[in-house]
Write a structure and sequence with these properties.
This protein is an alpha+beta fold. It has one domain. Helix content is 12%, strand content 21%. It has three helices and 16 strands. An eight-stranded mixed beta sheet has the order 11-12-10-9-13-14-16-15, with no helix packed on it. It has a three-stranded antiparallel beta sheet with strand order 1-5-4, with no helix packed on it. The radius of gyration is 25 Å and the shape is globular.
Amino acid sequence: MSSASPDWGIIRFPVAYGDSLMSYGKILAAAAALAALVGAMPTRAHTLPLGDGKVSTSPRAGYLMSCVLHWRRGPVHGGPWIGDGEWTPAEKPRVEGNVAWPAHHISITVRGDERIITANNLPEHTTGVFPISRSDPAYRYDRNPNPIRAQDILLRLPLNPKPAAEPSCVPMGMIGFATDGVAIYNAVDNGGIDAMAHEIQDHCNGHPQHVGQYHYHGPSPCMPNEMTSGLVGYALDGFGIYGTKDLATGRVLADADLDACHGTTSAVIWNGQRTAIYHYVLTREYPYTIGCFRGTPVASDFKARQIRQMKHEPGAMPRRPGPGGP
């Protein structure tokens, strides 16, 4: 051992006052050295259960009740951050860049018994550079060729949503909208696997699909209130989507705290008032946002126009959207 190394010799019990001071000093030095050694040791990165295969035809906690059950074949993204039924978010590459969107616009108004959202789907925060550049290390795993484009969003949601008689399935594409102006998609890609784990997103956990709609598949560090108990956005049935914490206790919630639709009834700030109401909750675990609709979802103007566009595009319906799709 070098002379710079701590004295790891045996520390004997003191028998006299002076000896006590000397031994106590050695104890402190040894404790400090041990703490430094432990602190320098590498720790295991935080992993999450992979959501692959967790798609159902009925409400089931921790699963996605999907309207689509036949998946399109295409490239399966992935890399060394996925293995043994788990994935490690900190090891997954991110699309590089910080692109600002000064034309961002969103308006949320109340008219009668409706909450009306109009937006252009451009985020209030920066994004990565899309299409993904060949020089970006993320290109090795996901060659998303889609640029981010403005979209005309119009949502007419119930101001005071009510639970439906039975939960309903979640479609592909937009299932909600965040208050920062970004669409929220469900937890899987067009191959039916965990999109948060497999697809490469930017520093805000977002990316565009084939017509350029920038969207999230789960929690984003750029979402308003993501790490709090505050409102993040609205699902298409009108119920709110809230941050990861419970308002009353401040505790971070997990799938085990939520029902089959990934929601719960508890106090939140709703329409400016503290109210006990049903709502969805963001979690780090799949399915991340919504497992099924607890209320009655409305159609989005964006989705209707997207379908019309695809019908008039020769060969568009049977093909898989480009990498980075829903």
